[in-house]
Amino acid sequence: MREPRPGDAEQVFAGYGARADVLRFLDWPVQVSVEETRRLLSYETHRWLKGVAWVWMLTCRTSGQVIGQIELKPASLPAETSHVMRLGYVLSPTRQGQGLMQEAVEVVLAQAWAVLPHVWRMEAWCDVDNEPSARLLGRAGFVREGLARRALSHPHAAPHPRDAWLYAFTRDQLAASSSAT
Ligand SMILES: CC(C)(COP(=O)(O)OP(=O)(O)OC[C@H]1O[C@@H](n2cnc3c(N)ncnc32)[C@H](O)[C@@H]1OP(=O)(O)O)[C@@H](O)C(=O)NCCC(=O)NCCS
């Protein structure tokens, strides 16, 4: 995993950025050109530098190809005082079904718990019909806390806001799982 770079634009565009089917349960626009993807990647760098969100690109160990991305952002600003972080991710369809995103989620969370002592809650919101994401969150140890009605806007799935599952993983859980091992 590494930071986003402008040179990633072609691979992001082709892999998932221009694909409404992959973005079905995200609120992203479908990217219409590699240039637009490049602008969005620059925006990620800007958000990183401003401390309002952190995005890591997932790359293939052997080829270096970009296969997805994962994001952590504070639920409120400034980040230094937010005790809640929100998680998001997307993986190229050709790399799904191999456990790669679960591995990425676990790495990002382990690092975040270690360097962000003020954070007590990692949160993820998931469209009620996004079963692969719900399974991933369950495997990664997130607890489904409830159903939030009309909470997410997913324009590629439906014109109106949709119901969502709210998932969370807390520092107490982390402490309980480390003391159990
Ligand atoms: C959500 C998303 C990242 C899940 O992708 P995924 O490939 O299912 O997740 P992982 O990379 O963790 O892979 C887990 C799958 O690989 C399988 N797998 C195969 N080998 C594995 C291994 N060695 N280790 C772990 N899992 C393995 C698992 O069984 C699981 O499949 P299952 O859920 O059908 O049982 C993907 O569907 C996606 O990018 N969707 C579009 C964007 C999106 O909706 N984002 C989420 C918004 S909330």
General description of the model:
- This protein has helices spanning 9-17, 34-50, 100-115, 131-139, 171-180; strands spanning 54-59, 66-74, 84-91, 121-127, 143-152, 162-170.
- Helix 1 (9-17) packs across helix 2 (34-50).
- Strands 1-2-3-4-6-5 form a six-stranded mixed beta sheet, with helices on both faces.
- The relative contact order is 0.14.
- It has 181 residues and is of the alpha+beta class.
- It has a single domain (6-180), classed as Gcn5-related N-acetyltransferase (GNAT) (Aminopeptidase).
- A hairpin with a 6-residue loop joins strand 1 (54-59) and strand 2 (66-74).
- It binds coenzyme A.
- Coenzyme A binds at residues 22, 25-26, 89-91, 96-102, 126, 130, 132-133, 135-136.
The strand count comes to 6
Instruction: Summarize the biggest pleated sheet.
Output: 6 strands, mixed
- Gyration radius (Cα, Å) is 16 Å
Note the gap between the termini: 27 Å
Q: Which ions, cofactors or small ligands are bound in this entry?
A: coenzyme A
Structural features:
binds coenzyme A, alpha+beta, Aminopeptidase, 5 helices, 181 residues, six-stranded mixed beta sheet
In short:
With 181 residues, the protein is α+β, with helices and mostly antiparallel strands. 34% of the residues lie in helices and 27% in strands. It has a single domain (6-180), classed as 3-Layer(aba) Sandwich (Aminopeptidase), CATH 3.40.630.
